[in-house]
């Protein structure tokens, strides 16, 4: 059976994060990037966060003349592109799964075929969405329906990674276990991590990436 590739980091790699609010907020809660540099100081990695809340694989709403995604990856000299997709799309449920998988496979193949850095074709990593946390608020869903969908979209990302040779990081499974076992609220609203949540995510993401 096919398996997802392992993430390989080389000295001087430029790692670009692309995708939704989960990735975008990493620049404000920098626990993961700190761990990355502390773990691999000899690699002298460069990390650029190009995420925007609401971004989807081929839906990137920007102001006029902002530039297309490829222009920013080229400007950042991306060697490794880490995609954060699946949360926004999961609200389409079962009916959106096939289209999401097709879009992600197309996006991965297109990205893998481009040389943004001048050092070789880009390597791609797919990061799953996190789970939805039941925060015990009667005005907020307990996440049962959301988690059922998020599990399916995580599985779809894994399959895309296996079929395309991209690397894959499942953070849905460990964050769901974390939310169920933690006495501390780790999200602002069930969906978006707070600072404690991002701190807890850091080692989970490192492990999921095989780092």
Overall description:
- With 211 residues, this protein is α/β, with parallel strands linked by helices.
- The chain has helices spanning 21-24, 31-39, 69-75, 87-90, 93-112, 144-164, 172-181, 195-208; strands at residues 14-19, 46-49, 80-84, 123-127, 167-169.
- The protein has a 5-stranded parallel sheet with strand order 2-1-3-4-5, with helices on both faces.
- Strand 4 (123-127), helix 6 and strand 5 (167-169) form a beta-alpha-beta unit.
What strand line-up does the widest sheet have? 2-1-3-4-5
Largest sheet: 5 strands, parallel
Determine the mean pLDDT: 96
Runs in which pLDDT lies below 50 for 5 or more consecutive residues are none
Which structural class do you get from the secondary structure elements?
alpha/beta
Query: Which percent range fits the helix content?
Result: 40-55%
Number of helical runs? 8
**Molecular shape:** globular
Distance between the terminal alpha carbons, to the nearest Å?
24 Å
* Beta-strand share of residues: 5-15%
What is the H-and-E element order?
A: EHHEHEHHEHEHH
Number of DSSP strand runs: 5
Compute the CA-based radius of gyration.
17 Å
Write a concise synopsis of the structure shown.
Helices cover 42% and strands 11% of the residues.
Sum up the structure in keywords.
8 helices, five-stranded parallel sheet, single chain, alpha/beta, 211 residues
Give a topology summary.
Layout: E1 14-19, H1 21-24, H2 31-39, E2 46-49, H3 69-75, E3 80-84, H4 87-90, H5 93-112, E4 123-127, H6 144-164, E5 167-169, H7 172-181, H8 195-208
Parallel strand pairs: 1-2, 1-3, 3-4, 4-5
Helix pairs in contact: 2-8, 5-6
């Amino acid at each position: 059976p096919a398996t997802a590739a392992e993430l390989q980091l080389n000295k001087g790699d430029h790692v670009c994060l692309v995708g939704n609010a989960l990735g975008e907020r990493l620049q404000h809660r920098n626990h993961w990037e700190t761990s990355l540099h502390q773990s691999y100081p000899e690699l002298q990695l460069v990390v650029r966060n190009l995420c925007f809340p609401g971004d989807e694989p081929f839906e990137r709403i920007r102001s006029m003349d902002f530039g297309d995604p490829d222009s920013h990856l080229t400007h950042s000299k991306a060697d490794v592109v880490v995609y954060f997709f699946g949360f926004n799309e999961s609200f389409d449920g079962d009916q959106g799964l096939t289209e999401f998988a097709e879009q992600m496979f197309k996006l991965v193949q297109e990205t893998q075929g481009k040389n943004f850095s001048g050092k070789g074709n880009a390597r791609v990593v797919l990061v799953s969405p996190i789970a939805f946390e039941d925060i015990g608020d009667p005005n907020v869903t307990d996440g049962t329906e959301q988690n059922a969908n998020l599990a399916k979209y995580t599985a779809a990302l894994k399959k895309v990674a296996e079929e395309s040779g991209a690397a894959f990081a499942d953070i849905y499974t460990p964050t769901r276990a974390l939310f169920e076992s933690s006495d501390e609220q780790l999200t602002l609203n069930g969906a978006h991590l707070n600072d404690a949540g991002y701190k807890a995510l850091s080692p989970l993401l490192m492990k999921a990436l095989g780092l």
